[in-house]
Amino acid sequence: xxxxxxxxxxxxxxxxxxxxxxxxxxxxxxxxxxxxxxxxxxxxxxxxxxxxxxxxxxxxxxxxxxxxxxxxxxxxxxxxxxxxxxxxxxxxxxxxxxxxxxxxxxxxxxxxxxxxxxxxxxxxxxxxxxxxxxxxxxxxxxxxxxxxxxxxxxxxxxxxxxxxxxxxxxxxxxxxxxxxxxxxxxxxxxxxxxxxxxxxxxxxxxxxxxxxxxxxxxxxxxxxxxxxxxxxxxxxxxxxxxxxxxxxxxxxxxxxxxxxxxxxxxxxxxxxxxxxxxxxxxxxxxxxxxxxxxxxxxxxxxxxxxx
Length: 307
Prior knowledge:
This protein is an alpha+beta fold. The chain has helices spanning 15-28, 83-93, 127-136, 144-152, 173-177, 186-193, 197-205; strands at 42-45, 48-52, 67-71, 74-77, 108-109, 112-113, 236-242, 265-268, 284-287, 296-297, 301-303.
């Protein structure tokens, strides 16, 4: 099982965000429901401003400063890419199958997903694998800003479904434990997932007795304002941008595409392995673009058609 690491506990102060978020939501005039265009598996995110990041006194330092960001319209997959869809890509192109350095959490055998996992999000894929798949279907990875707007909408919500945490609306460590789980450090993570309660749950209910992903869209009450599923939990998701902890201090206001990085790529959304803190819409994670983790998958996006 992959050890995702942890961040220090964060402080929440929602009142500082609400007034500006309301103004942005009214200005955007966005309908709360999904707006499919073309494929029913994609959702239109309309052009306009949203609040990106966390205000002073909330979240982690790499989420600040909070700022208004303007994005062009774009489309994004309603669901995370599944093993079944990725298998079609592998068979058509000869691309390598998803594997993990730890064979016990590799979920493909003899060139195909293990039985019962077709509808689960594909994991153990690198950033390069995700880019290749999206290109094959005529799409691309979303930018970090696009991903966050699709997850939280224009009212600056803390979770895709709203501002109140729920153990039942996202596939995470808390979902499986039935109570809120936080990890202060990797020692606590190991005590839960390697030696304790999480390890027992994985053995009893996980794929290969290890991986606790769910079929995509299994928790519809956790949908984002646009109707996207699993934007918190299930699989963490690669996005296009390079990671830089203080990029928000100098990021452009319009259509930011990330810094000119060289080492780490941004990962968003949290996974089945993650504590409640990591399920927030503003939380930023990262990995080497060659990493293949049992908690990391992706979804694709593309530019909206020109009118």
